[in-house]
Amino acid sequence: MPANLSRRDFLKISSAAAGAAAVLEGLPILTGGEAVSAAGAGSLKTSSNDVIVPGACALCPSACGTLARVADGNVVKLEGNPMHPVNSGSLCPKGQAAPELLYHPDRLNGPQKRKGDRGSGQWEAITWDEAIKTVSDKLNALRSAGQPEKLVFMVGDARGQLNSLFERFMQAIGSPNLVRNESLNVAAAKLGVYLTQGVYDLPVYDLENSRYILSFGASLLEAGPNPHRTISGISYSRRGRATRSKVILIDPRQGITGAKADEWIPINPGTDAALALGICNVIIRSSLFDSDFIHNYSFGFEDFSDEKGKTHKGFMSFVLENYDPANVEKITGVPATTIARLAGEFASNTPAVAIMPGKGGFLNGSISGVYAAMAIHMLNALVGSLDVPGGVLTQRYFDCAVWPDLPSDDVASKGLATERVDGAGTLFPLARNAYQAVADRILEGKPVEALFLYDANPIFDAPGGKRFTEAFKKIPLIVSFSSFADESANLADLILPESTFLERWQDGPIHGMGYPGVSLRQPAIEPRLQSRNCGDVILQVAQAMGGEISSAFPWKTFQEVLQFRLKDIGVDWKTFTDLGVWLIPGYRYAHRGSNHWINEVVGRDRRNAPRDGRFDFYSRELNCLFGGLKKDQLAKYGISESGDAVCLPHHEVGPQAGDASQFALRLNVITLMSLGPVSAAANLPTLQEISGMTVGETWNSWLEMNPKTASDLGLTDKDIVWVESPFGKLKTRMRLVKGLHPAVVNLPYNQGHTSGRFAGGRGVNGLEILNPASEPSCGLAEFTNTNVKVYRA
Amino acid sequence: MAKWSMVIDLDKCVACQGCSIACRAENNTPAVAPDQAEMGRAMRWNDVFPMPINPTEDTGEYPNVRAEYLPRPCMHCENPPCIKVCPVGATFKDADGIVEQNYARCIGCRFCTVGCPYSVRYFNWYEPKWEGDMILHLNPDQVVGPGVLEGPAVRPRSVVEKCTFCIHRLQKVHAQADAEGRAFRADEYVPACVQTCTGKARFFGDLDDPESTVSHLAKNTRAFHLLEDEGTHPKVIYLREG
Fold first, then answer.
1. Number of domains composing chain B
2. Using a CB cutoff of 8 Å and minimum separation of 24, what contacts does A259-264 make?
3. How far is A287 from chain B (nearest CA, A)?
4. ipTM greater than cut 0.90
């Protein structure tokens, strides 16, 4: 039910902080499209009934707060919600184009059942009752056969209570196989924080108060894990306060982030760990580190002896021995003098933050990427930037009401005890999810009976996604919740189209401010085209299954689930729906060593290492996993070092896909502000039109290349070229870009779709030729180590 | 009377193109066919592009390279060349200094698209089209009247259209103030691009009010106009990076 909220009511509630930025408004006096005289020459005609419905965008992980203007029953415009701290009233082009998603002509009309062979594109419309019965019968059959673990649920961006509902549903059924896509993007960064600070989450950077912002390949202004948050923070730090911040981007690609930074420093791809450690080296030698933090709240900075009396090398001596700027220059290509200058600037302009790429960059190459994330995070620790204003904060969340206990259930307990389908935690000891590995494991013989896809299009969005086409053939029932017949849904048996974010109830914990906050999606209009909220469908499936499962899900609608789980966040439902967002602003900094520090900031999520509030320069968590292993065992995990170096961040050359003598260039698949990471966004004509702004391309993909590289290869601007890796080749147009490392070529993501009337047949999908392998210790998709050659087509 | 002006701080602009698309959604400019877009016929009144247009020129040598990006609405010149070349008086400056277009009068000769040194006048080569239900998201606001501006209602084929500083928003806040029996306040009026700006790089207000934000920013040492030597006296003011 849309909240009927006029603009004036909204502003009354939302306080003066909402600002006077004119939120789109309905004019109650202008009824029935009647023209009235107004100032100026013409007279105004407008809708007769305008309401503003708060919500949250879903076209990238920022999930900015939105205000939908619903004019005479149609959503005609989105504005940013001024109350939402991530975007505070702004919206990027994806959010602005979102009404095209809502009214898209490719949207499916109600549940679709496959007719004919998979992929034949023939569908039969069925009723929701039939669809739900098909799914629940299948799940009941799996449970009666004692094989609930043969249900696999692959999930993209399911946040908040939807994520929690999925977890509970899978637990009730008895399958450990809820596979999120973090191994494609944020897992390396999360592991970097986990193995040092002991928190498994992306760090929050207090950019507004930072004096020095050192970004290692983080695409702060385009498409990081929370792009609007970083744009707001950088923008404020530049001109919103008395002193301007200094922003440095270290990245083989300049991009918009580098163009807007004070300094862009190109680096050899995949060598960020070495550079971060080189900077640490200078900071340590110059004694510019925070010695209170180092000596009282960290572990393993200096050499130490364990309980058996064996001495271990600490971070300081390891870094001093191995990462002299002169050595680092050889690895990274960054001049030693620059390294020394960066170290001096970073350590003497506190509060300073070193930012790891949450997504993109070159972290996903090998375990070296995880070591890089650790090393970058250690820079923050070294200068005492942890949990201080202008430093790195730890995201807090609202406590939700506790789910009722699940009934005891032997089938479920047995199923939950089985190995995960993706090998996370077993084959990949450090992994929590290994999205891309699902295909390999199925092809290796892991049996899967039913696959659910939520915001997951693995055939398109996983490197080497074609393997999923093969893997799908071994799965008897595939159910997609996509609103569109995307590449993966096209090979499904059932499509249960989800309502777009403008038509459904959903919450989203706010990430990026530190303090707890939650935003609320609500239907601006009733769901179009018989689409349903996936949360509702899951509840309906659970009801239809009967027995223990239905008793575990007593809620009739997903909205009821939200009301139940969010009842204690400190706001009544009416106010929450009126505002679309609820926060407890004001980050509570923890005193070093306090209970607050130990319980929430340092060591919170450690599974094996002690939760003693000490930041690990020597990772005890890694020691627990790899400590006793021999060199050959470590080699299997992609670690070339042995002994103490395994637990200390270091530069690993790592494997490369494609022999450098033949494939001389590194392929970097970049995410754009315009098309973003969500498959459906590529099918919006407006976003297609603006996608190639930086190089003057439109409705297409292109390969970015340094002019020097191009002239060495005998290529000129706009040549049609083949980009070939050991895994395949793609034909696209080459564009010269000066702000790019000569050994790297870039290809934008989210083109090369085979479905969608606006996206289909536009450009190429770079992921098709990326290394499809999984990194052996963390289960990361190992795609950023792919080498290619480029030649004229 | 006011002198509406926009200030764009390039130090805060992140070239996200939010302004381009906010403008599109607010003013019902259609996405054109891909081949037309390739020919440079896209209809984005408020475009963003690299400077220079061909980014391989003049941006230094690797690694000392810097790309620059420029968002560009209509400059709403005080001395607009487009008005002088219009043979039928279809484009005019209103009392508040906003350069408007009368679509009923426009004969589509495109003199103005050539006359404008900023290339911010867009010709409708085709009947605007939205596929299927996409037509439902069009902004219903219109400014109508005999012989005056009609916007942002969909413009027909063969006329030239342009940025109006979202003049219908100005009309709406005036109407709102009238309905509430109070005086109009300048800070109630904000064009869609300014409202959505992700970097909070855009400011809007009345240059005749010496206390307005734009008046203050116009005196900033970083302030400049595009193609100042053309003598157009733009009312869009840029602030330099850095």
1. 1
2. A259/A739, A259/B15, A259/B66, A259/B67, A259/B68, A259/B69, A260/A221, A260/A234, A260/B14, A260/B15, A260/B241, A261/A215, A262/B242, A264/A739, A264/B63, A264/B65, A264/B66
3. 31
4. yes
